[in-house]
Amino acid sequence: MLEEIRMLINNSKYYPLFFLIFFVELVCAQNSAKGRIVDAKTNKEVSGVDVFINENNKPVLTTTSGNFMVQSDSIIYKLKFLRKNYALETVDVTPENAPNIFVQLSQEKESNIQEVVIHNEKPKYKNKKENPAYAIMQEVWKRKRNNGLDKFDTYTYKEYEKIQFDANNLDSAFMKKKIFNKLEFIFEYKDSTAAGKIGLPIFLNEAIYENYGENRPSKKTKRLLIAQKTSGFQDNQIITLTAKNLYRDINIYDNTLNYFDIGFPSPVGETGFSTYDYNLLDTISVRGEQAYKIRYQPKRTEVLAFQGYLYIDTDTYAVLGATLKSTQKINVNFINSISTELEYDNPDEKTFLPRKFVTEIEMTPFSKKKTSKSIIAKRSVDYSEYDFNKPLEDKVFKRQEEEYDDKFVDKDDAFWTKARPDSLSKTEQGVYDMLDKLQQTPKFNRIVKLYETLGSGYYNVVKGIDLGPIFSIYGKNEVEGDRIRLGARTYFTRNDPWRVQFYTAYGFKDHQVKYGAEGRFMFNRVNRFTVGAGTRRDILQLGVQLTNDDGIMARTFASSTIFARGENASLSSVNQTNIFTSIEPWKNFQIRVDGTMQSITSANPEGFNLMYYKDGQLRKTANDSHVTVSLIARPGAKFSQTGIDRYEHGTLAPTIVLKYTRGIQGLFGSDFNYNKLQFMFYKPILIGSWGKTLINFEAGKNFDTVPLALQNVIPGNQSYSLAANTFAQLNYYEFVADTYTTLHLEHHFNGKILSYIPLIKKLKLREVAFIRGAYGTLSDASKAINVEGFKYSAPSEHIYYEYGVGIENIGFGNLRIFRVDFNWRGNYLDRPDISKFGIKAGFQVGF
């Protein structure tokens, strides 16, 4: 379990979630609306007003003061206000005015007031073909448009992005908390609402990109960041990454829209009518074009879906705009609501061009109540200055050294004033002013430092030196007993071109000191040409990872399992030295060469025998020197920062690895010549509204005979914790193979099935299903070389498989990060000391 937590902490894609949990209990939605009601003539507040939502004929609220707040399970697009002696007042609700609606009621003589009957105008159709909205959507599907950028030989355009975080739903009691002692000045920048709540801007990031593309004769793209301005957090890579990592690019015409790497059915997708009800409301003018206004709502509010409006051109059936708003029952961790507004230009009958996208995400780490304190994260992107079929030189697409310089994106205020499509509001400008003051406040810097420590796992002690990882301090295993590990690293800036790391550990049972150290230096930020060297002496759990990393400080499956199924005696003592060099000749494609010298012995000779025969002699230490060439492709992956360590944005990018290892006998006392080839492919895939499938395929072959310490081991997991890409019901070293293939398929349904079950659906649990398989062979020579080779075999008679189901999203409120898996072993059931059924549990931090 401790190792699992370390994995989560060290994985940068989870930093946004650590940011949420640390910051505050977070806010509200257009499923809610609030405001103030006054007399139009006297401007005095009016109470006793009946408030109706949409077309309902029963009031949802009768006010007791001049302020009101209403909520609904469905989208609120209209409010009606009625009070005796006043005329009926109707207000259209939009995402812009929902938080602060100002209603003026006009007095009217009682004799002139007519009976008010509010009808539910939602029509009922026998089938979808009778629905006029269906006929319109059919035309949209027939004329499905593609992004217009694909039709031109070349294109360029400008992109302005603005991301702002606001702490929301604050009140006077919150402002008086001790944490704000000496920080009271920040509330000078607050924004009060009609309901008496307070919003406080806390982060603002602006970025300008120039985009270049070539479709013919070859496919090339480049997105060049030319300016970036961040309020107070230029040196805080984790908070900036948190902001960038929340958003994905979407195409409204796709059947599935990606939010947080979770699939939501698109209301414009061809499968939309299986999820949504559509209602044609009106014909209106949108930027001078006549458009159908269609309201859509999910048939079932428990599913991951949107509600909102579509604006369809009456002549061309192009999407001019759309609003997407999550339902109040959205089942996404840490998220209370999502709202997106899209605007498109349509240059011809077959294509569209993005014009403006605005996405607002409301985040709370614990409670989903609308009154909870929250963070509103708003991102707006303006696309402009499109230019097509203009000749572009090849050098435009090449990465340039100056692009990676820290000062490359620094621009003065005059540049930003000219570059922004709209000037900053007073509130937005106040973010910069406030954060500049906060940077000079020691208490604020301590808060930021605490967040950095939780997010990175390292604690800064002096400039350039961090202690950690703090989550690896304690461990336990059968050989070492209680284990203490202390480490440190150099860290001067987020873009350091070099890094030195080391650790030392001590076991209170074996009374042995362990250590590890590594240094890396990057010569070129463009192709990331890097060299490094390191050494370690430690107790490790080998045989739980097929395609591993030779790096000394790379994460390994540590020997610190506190709770395990059966005894684990199969630990190894490893003395290893490694040197490496790597380069990225093309974006997201890395070539790495490792030279490794190591000696491996059993850390527990009485319980785990690694002895083998060599030239007729019995040996207990496997001496090995090898060279490994790795080709690593990450097409589509996105990274922040340009230093030796980068932080990865959350994407659905695949990972493809091809490795060749050559063992060299006689080099530094190595005992073996051997050749090994390995391949690994990992990819998450969104399957529409049915969730997400994770695919992990690995294959490899040892072409020569090697002892157990150097052999391929099908990864087992004897702990009670979840461990990715291992076999839950296999013991360590149960299957050993010269040649192997493994496949892991895991599908997350996102509550699709459980949402149909009464009572259960209220728990907001999500179901997982998985199946794992392995096949391999082990030669007689590979068995004979080991003293206890008779114990080992490969899954060659049949494909070994196991399967199971899991329940994830276990927790309360917005904090649902616990998962339980139920695993069944499919075959090889006659083996001794095996487990046919097992339960694994652990934390799974994610949306």
From TrEMBL:
InterPro entries for this protein: CarboxyPept-like_regulatory, DUF5686
Coiled-coil intervals, chain numbering: none
Organism domain of life: Bacteria
Record-linked SUPFAM superfamilies: Carboxypeptidase regulatory domain-like
Pfam family, one: DUF5686
Record protein name field: CarboxypepD_reg-like domain-containing protein
Organism: Chryseobacterium wanjuense
